[in-house]
Amino acid sequence: MVLLKIITKSSVISKSLPFSYFGKLFTEAAHLKREQPLFIFYKNRIYIDPRFTIFAVMTHINSVKPLLIVVTGPTASGKTLVSSEIAQHFCTEIISADSRQLFREMEIGTAIPDSDLLSKVKHHFIHSHSINDYYNASRFEEEVIQKLHELYSKVDIVVLTGGSMLYIDAVCNGIDDLPPIDLEIRNNLIARFEKEGIESLRFELKKLDPDYYHEADLQNHKRLLHALEICLQTGKPYSSFRTHTRKQRPFGIIKIGLSASREILYDRINRRVDDMVNAGLENEARRLYPYRRNNALNTVGYREWFDYFDGFSSYDETIEKIKSNTRRYARKQLTWFRRDGEVKWFDLSETGQIIPYIETRLKILWKNHHHLY
RNA sequence: GGUGCCAUAGCUCAGUAGGUAGAGCAACGGACUGAAAAUCCGUGUGUCCCCGGUUCGAUUCCUGGUGGCACCA
């Protein structure tokens, strides 16, 4: 809801109005007894009759939560195009939730939107960081929440799109606050793991945090390393930082998922990998080869080339491996989606229904507040 | 046309000295709170080419087909 105040030579008009939500023409003029409307709302912008002298137009958003439209789906399901259409329809901007498109050094292999789309809609968190930066889901949460705060002062709808589910969860539900870890503690633990093996980590965790020891995946060294880092850094068990609660967000969330049959999805993946190869993926990987130890480059579409450069696989095997690993990645994403009951799914053949669906949801959301005024 | 070899999972192939089978890859499922395109865990999906024969029992041995490969014509 928007409080609109228009100050003219002769009068001050104050009106509470719904935001320009449906993308339809919205007029508000009857009370002026004019034949022509004084101003119209259209797609988040206010257009004023030029024959009228306006001294000031002030608006502010009031009471109704702004909205985050989350567009997700497995890799190569067409998120980029759909989210761009949604953003254009609602005259807003896109935040990318993609843990690899963040990095400006990686372009072809991460399938960032093309320059045409980037010029039509403002995108955030694409090529915003360097592969030399230390990055993680918590940082993403912090930076996106900050960015949303900024954006919601201008618009009341923002689109979040991507397939990095942990990152999306971090924005929608939050993740627990943890202290930063000294590099020395981290490196010591890694060295210990490499020298003494995972058994040594289990032994230490059982001592420092028996609670987490019982629920942890004891085969997964990353989980154990992380828990131990926290224990050693703080002197308190890692489990004492785990709240198991969702953070409250000052915005509403609608989740849209894009789906396709396995056959179609796999075909899209295979074709996209071929396109990437034709666009010069091998050269991009060769350029990044010196950085292959960076976590950012522990990524499908790059690590396979590094094996090829090291002589461990043939050219054809490399491309097959990229396709196969991308398919596996998509399956892993699907596993994550199955647990999230909040997602409204649309098949690729019915993407035309997405914007009408969002508009219906908006009507329901905002109608309830209308009675307050 | 002749001779030899081969036919087993979606693919490449093991194997059963006769008791209806198993590896790798692919595929499929799950976990997931500061590396997440990461990391970790689990699952065999089969007319053992076809028709007969021998046998208590044949994917395995035998006859004959069919298909493939190699060599000789």
How would you describe this structure to a colleague?
By secondary structure, this protein is an alpha/beta fold. The chain is built from 13 helices and twelve strands. A hairpin with a 3-residue loop joins strand 1 and strand 2. Helix 5 packs across helix 8 and helix 6 packs across helix 8. The longest helix has 25 residues. The chain is globular, with a radius of gyration of 25 Å. The C terminus is likely disordered. The structure holds one RNA strand of 73 nucleotides.
Properties at a glance:
373 residues; alpha/beta; 6-stranded parallel beta sheet; 3-stranded antiparallel beta sheet; 13 helices; 16% strand; globular; disordered C terminus; RNA-binding
Summarize the topology:
Elements: E1 2-8, E2 12-17, E3 26-27, E4 39-42, E5 45-48, E6 54-61, E7 67-72, H1 79-89, E8 94-96, H2 115-120, E9 123-124, H3 137-151, E10 157-161, H4 165-172, H5 183-196, H6 198-208, H7 210-215, H8 221-234, E11 252-259, H9 262-278, H10 281-288, H11 303-309, H12 315-339, E12 343-347, H13 354-370
Parallel strand pairs: 7-10, 7-11, 8-9, 8-10, 11-12
Antiparallel strand pairs: 1-2, 1-6, 3-4, 4-5
Helix pairs in contact: 3-4, 5-6, 5-8, 6-8, 9-12, 11-12
The protein binds one RNA strand of 73 nucleotides through helix 3, helix 4, helix 8 and helix 12.
Give a concise summary.
By secondary structure, the protein is of the alpha/beta class.
> How many E-type strands?
12
Strand order of the largest sheet: 9-8-10-7-11-12
Shape: globular
**Could you describe the largest sheet, including whether it forms a barrel?**
6 strands, parallel
Strand/helix succession: EEEEEEEHEHEHEHHHHHEHHHHEH
Please identify the structural class as seen in this structure: alpha/beta
Helix fraction, binned, reads: 40-55%
Distance between the termini: 10 Å
In terms of DSSP E residues, the strand content is 15-25%
Stretches with pLDDT under 50, minimum 5 residues: 15-37, 55-62, 368-373
